[in-house]
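Because discrete structure vocabularies remain unfamiliar, we first show an illustrative case, written as a sequence plus integers encoding its fold.
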Amino acid sequence: MNLDEFYFFNTLHAQELKELQNITFKKSFKAGEILFYAGEKPKYLYLLACGVVKLYKHDFRDNEVLIHNLGAPNLIAEIVNFEEGVFPANCAFVSDGEVYMIDYERFKERFLSKSEISMLFIKSLTKKIKALESFINYNITADSYAKIAKFLLENEAVLSTLKQTKIAAVLNITPETLSRNITKMREANLITKERGKLLILDHKALKECVLGM
């Protein structure tokens, strides 16, 4: 994905886009690599160009607690930039990916004064808040089968890069629970497995699993 393909920036004129590119660089990450740690103060505005990241913390027993998954294209934790605070959680790559790293101070000075950009920024923040509320409610009420169905649908583009142990870790379920439910889905012809990778066969049925949780 190029910068001008992201909805935030597709209204910029050629000169403005050039200015944005001058304060931006792209960096590649491998699955498992950390983008930032809780407590760090952001220097960049992070735009996920491809891949999937997870935002997570650790509880008092040092167990990983998943907060949210983000797939590309998406801004990452932009509320921290907006509030000029520190990251409240860690961010790591679930799959290989790429991030546009935008110098936030220069971005704020040059682009946030534009009404269309600032409005999109606020809408993005609102969308993240709603997604977090939905995520919390879903994880309280949904069973493991529905959680897995939802994850498969939302991350279909990168399923070929994810091992089942990684999916289980992201969903905070045991590998055995994931394997058992994956077997049920395969027997119901909802998904299949080719060369160790999961493929969706019946999107409609998976959506019904999610809606009927």
About this structure: Residues 191 and 201 are 5 Å apart (CA to CA). The chain has eight helices and ten strands. The two ends are 34 Å apart (CA to CA). The first helix runs from residue 14 to 22.
